[in-house]
Amino acid sequence: MLSVYIAAVSDRHYTIVRYTSTSTQTYLTYYKDSTTSQMSRVQLLNQDLPTTKAKVFYRQAGPESAPVILLLHGFPSSSHQYRNLIPILAKKYRVLAPDLPGFGFTTIPEGFKYTFDNLAAVVSEFLDKLSVTRFSVYIFDYGAPTGLRLALQRPDAVQAIISQNGNAYDEGLGAFWDPIRELWKNNNDPKIRAKLVPALLSFEATKWQYEEGTQSSRVIAPESYHLDYALLQRPGNADAQIDLFWDYRNNLPLYPKFQEYFRQSNVPVLAVWGKNDQIFVAPGAEAFKRDLPKAEVRLLDAGHFAVETETEEIGSLILDFLGRNGI
């Protein structure tokens, strides 16, 4: 049995969702090409892929034979944040956007340890199961320490890096991290953990991440932060999220290793940054030039979730950047 309905409409695209008898959802997104004003079609598949550590939910679109772009989301979101970017990139590339463990619709067994090493391990196995051996990676927020771990493990596999507020430098950490540093200094103190839950996981905190620094909050789709907040409320998820904030301290000692990788690999990097972000601040974007003089830095008048408000500009920058690098 097949049911069809229009799921989303905008001046840029509309989406038809088809549910089949399997768990796969097929999204047929018709987007307006900015160069021709014609409507073109992109098929987006939502699927689950079992790995040894998790059942990974992911979105994919584009020709299977095309070069791969891996989109890694951040806190507190999921692959849903890329729903509008995927059709733009899928015109030329095979786009893969998994939900990280603890987020979105990826399911994990009891006893899973929420560390960035484990997040990277899940994504690594995900790529292996899909036989992906070369890819460009879009790193945002938590996607940065996850994706850069992959780059350390398989440097020859990474063709290019697009960092959208994805940090690899000490100077990129904003004041947002000050209360979390207290958790680090006090050895994961339960009292501090308890204080961080409302500060970081409340509806207001989730909405703030989307709206802070934007030119107008009216351009933010409210379902974005409503969905994120709803998924944060799942039983046990608060502990998982605070565990990841606690483990984030282990990313900082890796920054020099990430930077050494940049220097040795000379990997093409596009740092496209919401310059008004208070979580990962603009100096973190400029810092890429220290290790990669040819890194391209674009500071946009946007906040943390720049991809929500500047989707078309970011998509165009990525297509141009990858094209000029022969990808």
TrEMBL record:
| SUPFAM superfamilies given in the database record | alpha/beta-Hydrolases
Q: Which residues form a coiled coil?
A: none
Q: Which GO terms describe its molecular function?
A: epoxide hydrolase activity
Is Hydrolase one of the keywords UniProt gives this record? Answer: yes
Pfam families attached to this UniProt entry: Abhydrolase_1
The UniProt entry, under Gene3D superfamilies, shows:
alpha/beta hydrolase (3.40.50.1820)
Q: InterPro entries this protein is in?
A: AB_hydrolase_1, AB_hydrolase_fold, Epox_hydrolase-like, Haloalkane_dehalogenase
Q: Give the source's domain of life in one word.
A: Eukaryota
Annotated ranges, domain AB hydrolase-1: 67-310
Listed A to Z, the keywords are: Hydrolase
Q: Does the keyword Hydrolase apply?
A: yes
Q: What is this protein called?
A: AB hydrolase-1 domain-containing protein
